[in-house]
Input
Amino acid sequence: MKIVMLGAPGAGKGTQALNIAKEFGIPHISTGDIFRANIKNQTELGMKAKSYMDKGALVPDDITIGMLLDRIAEKDCENGFVLDGFPRTIPQAESLKAALTLQNTAIDHAVDIEVPDEVITTRMGGRRSCPKCGGTYHVVFNAPKKEGICDNCGSELTQRADDKPETVLERLKTYHEQTQPLIDFYNKEGVLDTVDGTQKPDEVLKCILGALK
Ligand code: AMP
Output
């Protein structure tokens, strides 16, 4: 199963992508996580990406597309994958489509998690993530069992630098301008599933699994 997650930053893509990956036994691939790992390891790619990410802008397509296509060419992606945060532009979606078409395959589902902007801005301030295993939480809506500690691996949770209020507004603007058109793109491809992302995380998951099965 090849799945793409759509939705604004903070809509719950990461949380649900991890759930879906577990359910179907396929890798969860987050371009944001790959960039953050590169920043942490101070690679050239990471240094390039950081300047864009800090502003709430998108990393240019020429950097992002090659990186993602290399990742999905790896052996663990043979039976599918969940893409979280890619594609974010029409050229990214076109490149992904072209690469998959060469292998006689295509995206099976594009899951759009819909959440209004006002809800997004309230949510993002409480967002926490695990720097070690990538687990995501929210201090109110999806709290870990022990405050500040990852349920999966026991590491201390952190807040992302780009979850600051001014960057959040910029990321939402970027989303509306560059990423939202993908909803229409995947609708035309006949693979769009729209889910109400204002529900509780387990309800959202139920709706997604219902659409995927
Ligand atoms: P995320 O963790 O998916 O919210 O991504 C964090 C940041 O990484 C975004 O705000 C972008 O700056 C960058 N990024 C992640 N995925 C992409 C992508 N597909 N295209 C361009 N930039 C991306």
